[in-house]
Design brief:
The protein is an alpha/beta fold and 437 residues long. It contains 16 helices and eleven strands. The longest helix is centred in the last third of the chain and has 21 residues, at 359-379.
């Protein structure tokens, strides 16, 4: 056994701050409240239900993840955040209509007590939404300070020892990195100059980092995927992760594509379309916001299939992604895929996948796991980009010069090996004669 990493104990209360307290945010909060009352199970959460193998297979040691590591417990979580609407978490959950009335009413009092702080809102980044409960200071530098004050007040009022933040807000309109994103000096000057390339999500991220709060980006926004933010995070010793929660259709791609590649089956085309009717669907109905999501979704297959290494199998693959706003569907998203594949001697075959999923139900356990693992990383002194959390993201951040890993099974191995490393356990490589050692 190697020397374990020094991890500060999870003492006191952990605040989980959510920029965006709509369908995903309130489903996550209500689910945690229900789970800690024993009224529902946190299905889909690796930190709550997962196990991890330790040692050889013959050792038969498979502790639960939350017993293996000093993670914060559900009873120690305190929820807060910001939103464009002033509704309590209870009203927002009723409006989102993701959960049953029975589930919402069972935790009504707790949800009613959670009220969002005023949000940072620039209409050019989310044109399909109106801001009703927003900060009005025209200075972006001043907005950072207002969010920092929100965090300090939230910690004080709730007696918190530490916080993490997970972006659960809407997808922002697409922006390419600009000069203001390339260094911390440029970013600080850009805040003073109200640079238009500094988005609302960046305001939150900058404020969180300066307050020592780790930030996970659950949308395809540029947010923390820029050199200036990496520099700021290193300076303050804060972990970052992102981007874009891997939920419905992309989750299926990262399961199916590795299997096709493993068997060297070719792919001629992969057509994907989604219909959804929640706030996210309304936002993505705008072409500029859809562009952010499209870029996130399209990059997945290339890094799994490596068409440059297998041009005869994947070099001419046609890949198209569509998202359609369809209000009657609400949060019950449908992801439909048509995959044209070919096998031995080039004979064609097809796969069709119709995933009738629930967007926020799939996202909620991701929010929980990210919050707990980001807190763990903070207590272990791990700062900057946390690539080991790529398991949870459609478009995972990666170090400059490295392609992102999108194979779900490789991602899970990397995540669990990081957990083993933190505890000083041997990494699992599947090498050696472990049945006979």
């Amino acid at each position: 056994m190697k020397q374990p990493k020094e991890i500060r104990p999870a003492e006191g209360k952990l605040g989980i701050l959510l920029p965006g307290m709509g369908a995903v945010g309130t489903t996550f909060i209500a689910g945690c409240l229900l789970a800690r009352k024993g009224l529902a199970a946190p299905v889909g959460s690796l930190t709550q239900m997962g196990t991890i193998r330790v040692g050889k297979r013959t050792d038969l040691k498979m502790p639960k993840v939350n017993e293996f590591l000093p993670l914060a417990g559900l009873n120690d979580l305190v929820f807060g955040g910001w939103d464009l609407f002033e509704d309590s978490a209870y009203t927002a959950a009723k409006t989102a209509a993701v959960l049953s009335d029975a589930h919402i009413e069972a935790v009504k009092d707790e949800l009613e007590a959670i009220r969002p702080m005023k949000a940072v809102f620039f209409p050019e980044y989310v044109r399909r939404l109106r801001g009703e409960h927003i900060k009005t200071n025209p200075s972006k530098a001043a907005l950072v300070e207002e969010v920092r004050e929100d965090i300090r007040r939230f910690k004080k009022e709730n007696g918190l020892s530490r916080c993490v933040a997970v972006w659960c807000g809407s997808t922002e309109s697409h922006r390419e990195p600009g000069p203001v994103h390339q260094s911390l000096k440029a970013l600080e000057a850009g805040l003073e100059a109200n640079d238009p390339l500094i988005s609302p999500s960046m305001i939150y991220a900058i404020a969180c980092i300066k307050e020592g709060v780790g930030f996970a980006n659950g949308a395809p926004n540029l947010t923390v995927d820029i050199p200036a933010i990496w520099e700021l995070a290193r300076e303050h010793g804060v972990p970052l992760s992102g981007k874009d929660f891997k939920t419905g259709q992309t989750l299926m791609k990262t399961i199916i594509a590795p299997g096709l590649r493993a068997r060297f089956l070719g792919i001629r085309g992969w057509f994907s379309t989604n219909i959804l009717g929640n706030r996210d669907g309304e936002v993505l109905d705008d072409p500029e916001n859809f562009k952010s999501k499209e870029v996130s979704k399209l990059g997945v297959l290339e890094t799994i299939l490596h068409p440059d290494k297998h041009p005869e199998l994947y070099g001419d693959m046609y890949h198209k992604v569509r998202i359609e706003y369809y209000p009657p569907r609400g949060d019950e998203k449908e992801g439909w895929d048509n995959i044209d594949i070919f096998g031995w001697l080039g004979y064609p075959m097809q796969m069709k996948i119709d995933f009738l999923c629930r967007d926020s139900i799939l996202a909620a356990p991701i929010v929980l796991d990210l919050a707990l693992f980001m807190d763990l990383a903070q207590r272990a002194g791990m700062s900057g980009m946390q690539e080991w959390l790529s398991f949870y993201f459609k478009s995972p951040m990666s170090a400059p010069g490295l392609y992102p890993e999108n194979d779900l099974f490789v991602q899970l191995m990397k995540l669990k090996n990081m957990l083993r490393w933190m505890k000083g356990e041997e990494l699992i490589t599947h090498l050696g004669h472990e049945y006979y050692d």
